[in-house]
Amino acid sequence: MDKIVFSTMDGRYQIAVTDTEVFLSVWPPLNGGIPVSKAAIIQDLKNKKLLDFDQEFISTVIKEAMGMPALIMNCLPKKDGRYQVTITDKEVFLCVWAPVNGGKPVLRGSILQELSERKLTDFDQAFVFNVIKEASGRPALIISSSSIEPVRNISVKVRSNRLEAMIDISIAKDAPTATISQLADKLRDAGVVYGIDDCILATLTETRFAQNIVCARGIEPRNGEKAYLKYYFDADSQGRPEEQEDGRVDFKETNSFLCVEEAKLLVEKVPATPGVSGIDVFGKEILPKPGKDIPMPVGKNTICVDNWRLYAAIDGHLHVFLDKRINVIPIIVIEGDVDYNTGNIDFKGSVIVKGTVQPDFCVKAGGNVEVCGNICGGTVEANSIIVRNGIQGMSRGVIKARERLVVGFIENATVYADEDVIVSDFIMNSNVFAGSRVIIEGRRGLIRGGRISAGQVIRAATVGNKSGVTTELEVSINPFLKDELLKLRSEIQKDETLYEELDRSISFIRKQGVERLVAVKRERYKKNEAEFQALPERIEENRQRITNIENLLRLLKSGRIRVSDFIYPGTKISIGSSTKTLKDTLKYVSLYVQEGEIKFSSLR
Description:
Elements: E1 12-17, E2 22-27, H1 38-47, H2 55-64, E3 70-73, E4 82-87, E5 92-97, H3 108-117, H4 125-134, E6 140-143, E7 152-158, E8 164-171, H5 180-189, H6 198-204, E9 209-217, E10 228-231, E11 242-243, E12 249-250, E13 259-260, E14 265-270, E15 278-279, E16 285-286, E17 302-305, E18 309-312, E19 316-321, E20 325-329, E21 331-334, E22 345-347, E23 350-353, E24 362-365, E25 369-371, E26 375-376, E27 379-382, E28 385-392, E29 398-401, E30 405-411, E31 414-417, E32 420-434, E33 437-440, E34 446-454, E35 457-460, E36 462-463, E37 471-475, H7 479-512, H8 519-555, E38 560-567, E39 571-575, E40 578-581, E41 586-594, E42 597-602
Parallel strand pairs: 21-23, 22-24, 23-25, 24-27, 25-28, 26-28, 27-29, 28-30, 29-31, 30-32, 31-32, 32-33, 32-34, 33-35, 34-36, 34-37, 35-38, 37-39
Antiparallel strand pairs: 1-2, 2-3, 4-5, 5-6, 7-8, 8-9, 10-14, 11-12, 13-19, 14-18, 15-16, 17-18, 19-20, 38-41, 39-40, 41-42
Helix pairs in contact: 7-8
């Protein structure tokens, strides 16, 4: 005997809506079908805008699934009464629907006004009132063919935004169609005078029935654009390693600080626009909504000009606070070491390093630099440099102070200072060059090995050692300052010549028209223009440096070396053009030049 297989059947439901009530019927699934989903029923009710129901009761109806209608709502939304006037070739019918759930009934005046506008007057008013009262929703004959005249009904509607005018046309068969002039008169009577489409009006003369036909359009106003800020620095580049031309990344150049110079343009505001006025179909101006202004992000050490441009008031680094305020900070504070976390530092202001400058990293500052730890094989350039511990040059570190250097000790390093080098402990195996004085006085006050050069005075407690390590002491005009002076004068002469050449070239190109240049030449022109603008500042900086060096050299006095303890044999002494290598140990001496010969006298 063949096995009988029954097909599965999913559960189903039905929502029935009457004038006042809503019923839900749910049928169960058969043979393992899928039951009705509560979510599907609730979504269906919401789509029908039926919201006042009990979800728990619906869950019960679904669970029972009896297939019987269950009342789930007995109060539906209000619905006002409505009516419709229908005109045929021979008759006029009126159909009135009653309100639902307390809605407003149809007003007699509304029906009488429409009949009057359509020139339908031959009707029994009492009968019409009775049709309104009954509101059965069935068409009622209110005018027979004997009294109907050919009807031409033309009405004009204007949208609330006054940008579109529409025409409704209802013309009986026995009446002639409307003409363009008649349609234009209707528009004019409604006040519509702008943006009328004559082609649409011509098309309407060929029809007897049309609704909501747009026949006139105004011009919509164009609102103003909001002001916005144009930044002249790339905030996203902060902390991002510098990519070289060959694609490699230099992790020492991480741009940890966005450094700017005084008078640097930081932000420019592109102002809001007022917008463009529109015109409505009545021919009147529609004012646009002007764009919204935004405040300038003025912060510390910035200058705002005419609420339009923001400049840096000092040399410093940028600190952007929540995109609402831009500050220029004159001092960079490194909380730890200068290493791969910070990258190299190149800053116009001053720098404080709470930790150590690690090997092969560089700190360059236009102001001063203070290092709370050590400088270990790194490079530091600044006006004045203070190192709380010491300099461990590791035979590669170079320190350059445009004014003075104050440090605990110097070991295996090369140090330059335009003025003084002041050391509190010792200098070992280092090359130290000072424009004025080298003073090593403190715990040991020791100089051992290397070369110490000063323009005026060298003071120490002990020089050399008993084993005769080679130590050179030199007091004379700093040869490096002389070389720099000659180099600066040569650079100024070259820059002045280049400035004149670029001035002639740029003037010629501007007369010919920059826009005529091909891409390669235009790019070259931009580079030349940038260099032309930078040259005056560079020339002025070099002139100022020359003045400083000349003043420094002018103040130098005759040289002297003062040793408050021992100076050991093997020490080479140079004062001016005189040179002498000590063969004996001296103590408490001052060395100087007299009549071209190095002499010494006791400090006691």
